[in-house]
Design brief:
single chain; mainly alpha; 2 strands; two-stranded antiparallel ribbon; 476 residues
């Protein structure tokens, strides 16, 4: 992206190019920026060109991680990697329709309704290239997860472009997101969370596009998120309110309260209908009706409230901001579970010291520098971009809820809920900081490249170590 285009995006997002009006200033609302057709066309070209390249590269990366684990016990037993119910998800996506959902996947959601048909189509495509039907099923699930992860990377790249970053910085932060521990592990291990991550990233991207987004973009991403998990209703509500308030600030006619109430009511109605349709289509997935889901959800919220008071939040920050981006090198066999049940050995993360002088912690320090730089530009980003405020609120809720409910041995299991917000906030903040400190442009570009290279190498090695641990476990 040329410097002039970069300035144009930043100026547009800060309303420097917008004609001001007395009404806007009298009402205390921000004037609406005019859409530059040439600027929009250039951004679309960069998104489509580099977006296709990013999708291809990261789908290949994610599928390579899947191939590392496909012949291990991940697909045979639940809980062997960070407490993930990988075998259950794999089975429910590939079992005959009469048995779909019998392992518990899709309870209180419409996940199976949305994803079983794509898996069946992919399985048909893989069958001629697989030695048996079981291998074709594993490849189909791995392909769908790789597609979901790669699309999330492309969406984040698009988000950063529309937030004012130049092509290089947007591409590098999207790569950091794709190479993160969260994306690397949970596109290789069958899990529902990676699909929720796709929906949340899609909503943030629609918010970044603002008035230039199509009317259905945010709604489609919100619906997909809720169909993946009913717990996404709260993040959807947070982002919907943030988006509505921002639109109200930039428009004299938009009424946020009726818009949010009407949209959320319609979303809940459609999600409830989808749950009922799934229970009819896949009878064994209907373990709870809508009223039981609501009752159970209130119990879980109360539990999260109680556990939040005793959660070690300082140590939890390591998983929120660091370990979910760059994995620790060692993995270990959980010997306590191995002694209880010799056929069930698991791989989990080891608690580590934060400040140790070695290469891995030096790479973590590089990420800390980027986050600190992002914090310096975050106030301006939050003032001039609704996506920054929405991502901050989303991060706060996801960390508070999932962090309080995280059990020992399940570190990072729910990290897909907050990782997109962490990278988006950091990227948007760095973009705003570079607008002020232009001399840092080249050093930051070099730092981003060095960090992405080290991160991709380290996290792929982490997947390889998990596979090796599981192979050792299977042979014992």
């Amino acid at each position: 992206m040329t410097p002039s285009l970069h300035c144009s995006i930043a100026d547009l997002s800060q309303n420097k190019l917008a004609p001001t009006s007395r009404i806007g200033f009298i009402s205390g609302r921000m004037p609406v920026p005019e859409t530059d057709p040439k600027l929009t066309a250039k951004l679309h070209r960069r998104w489509r060109g580099m977006g296709a390249l990013l999708f291809t590269a990261f789908y290949s990366f994610f599928f390579a991680g899947h191939l590392e684990l496909v012949k291990t016990t991940v697909y045979l037993k639940d809980g062997v990697v960070m407490g993930a119910n990988a075998a259950a998800v794999q089975a429910d996506l590939t079992l005959p329709g009469a048995d779909a959902g019998s392992k518990g996947t899709g309870t209180a959601s419409s996940f199976l309704l949305v994803h079983r048909i794509p898996v069946a189509v992919l399985e048909t495509g893989w069958r001629p290239f697989s030695k048996d039907a079981n291998e074709a099923k594993k490849m189909a699930v791995g392909t769908l997860q790789g597609i979901a992860g790669a699309l999330a990377v492309v969406f984040l790249y698009h988000l950063l472009l529309w937030s004012g970053l130049n092509t290089w910085n947007a591409m590098m932060f999207a790569a950091i997101f794709g190479f993160s521990t969260t994306a690397t592990v949970f596109t290789a291990v069958p899990q529902v969370q990676i699909f929720s991550m796709l929906g949340l990233t899609g909503m943030l991207t629609a918010m970044a596009r603002g008035k230039r987004a199509q009317w259905w973009e945010f709604s489609a991403a919100a619906l997909y998120s809720v169909l993946c998990s009913h717990w996404n209703l709260i993040p959807v509500a947070i982002l919907a309110v943030s988006r509505a308030v921002w639109r109200w600030r930039t428009s004299d006619s938009f009424k946020p309260v009726p818009a949010v109430l009407g949209s959320m009511s319609l979303l809940i109605l459609v999600a409830t209908g989808a749950m009922m349709l799934q229970s009819w289509w896949y009878p064994k997935s209907s373990q709870m009706d809508v009223f039981d889901v609501a009752k159970s959800s209130m119990t879980t919220l109360h539990q999260a409230k109680e556990r939040a008071a005793v959660t070690p939040w300082v140590s939890r920050l390591q998983d929120v901001f660091f370990t979910n981006i760059l994995a620790p090198t060692p993995t270990m066999l959980d010997q306590s579970k191995a002694l209880e049940r010799k056929t069930r050995r698991t791989v989990s993360l080891v608690d580590e010291e934060w400040f140790v002088l070695d290469f891995r912690h030096a790479v973590w320090a590089g990420w800390m520098i980027l986050m600190l730089l992002g914090l310096t530009g975050l106030p301006t980003a939050a003032e001039h971009a609704g996506v920054a405020t929405g991502a901050l609120l989303l991060l706060g809720w996801q960390v508070l809820f999932h962090g309080a409910l995280e059990d020992p041995g399940e570190r990072l299991l729910q990290s897909a809920a907050w990782t997109p917000a962490v990278v988006a906030i950091t990227g948007v903040g760095v973009g705003r900081a570079l607008d002020k400190f232009k001399t840092l442009g080249v050093p930051v570009a070099v730092l981003l490249l060095a960090f992405a290279v080290a991160q991709s190498t380290g996290n792929y090695r982490f997947i390889h170590e998990i596979a090796e641990q599981l192979r050792i476990s299977a042979s014992m």
